[in-house]
Amino acid sequence: MLSPTNTVFQVEMLALKAAIEWANTTNEEVNIWNGSKSSLQALKSLNVKSKITQEAQMTLLKNARIRLGWVKAHIGIKGNEIADTLAKEATTDGIPASLPFPKSFLKKQLLQLSLSRWQAEWDNGETGGSVYSIIQKISNKQLHWSRECIQFATGNGPFPSYLKRFGLHSTDYCGCGEIGNPLHYATRCPLT
């Protein structure tokens, strides 16, 4: 019985590894037919990160009498159909198996945790209020804003209220007499 966090690939590779290990104990030539192309391709690969796959590769390297082949799944081949039925039963009724979490699962969990913490910081932050009023929900997707839109949203642009902070303008007032910030120019200034 496997955790819901385990991938189909992990399960298929675990079953194939078990078959390879069994075949290694016999003193005969053994053909193992498998319906998982991805598992067979992983065994051929030189760049493997999965410990299960690496262990299966090592067993195969030590025993030239084990041959692997691919068989199309779900087309009525009796042995393959029996294997599929047993595999389905093993997911609910089998002996609990302990497999490491797949990297894809861990990456997803870390991303969700990071986004959650980032959102909390964004919601409770003391800076970025002008941008927060436009974008309340954070995202790791890139926004394609023009330079002018970024300056308007942040207030970091050619506005008296910004320039005065750096001594680049003598006052933070607009020519009309109000504070010269982006919202003023966009909504109230009679000069724009």
From TrEMBL:
Top-level taxon in the UniProt lineage: Eukaryota
Coiled coil spans: none
PROSITE patterns: RNASE_H_1 (PS50879)
Name assigned to this protein: RNase H type-1 domain-containing protein
Organism expressing this protein natively: Araneus ventricosus
Pfam families (alphabetical): RNase_H
Cross-referenced InterPro entries: RNaseH-like_sf (IPR012337), RNaseH_domain (IPR002156), RNaseH_sf (IPR036397)
GO MF annotation terms: nucleic acid binding; RNA-DNA hybrid ribonuclease activity
Ranges for domain RNase H type-1: 1-92
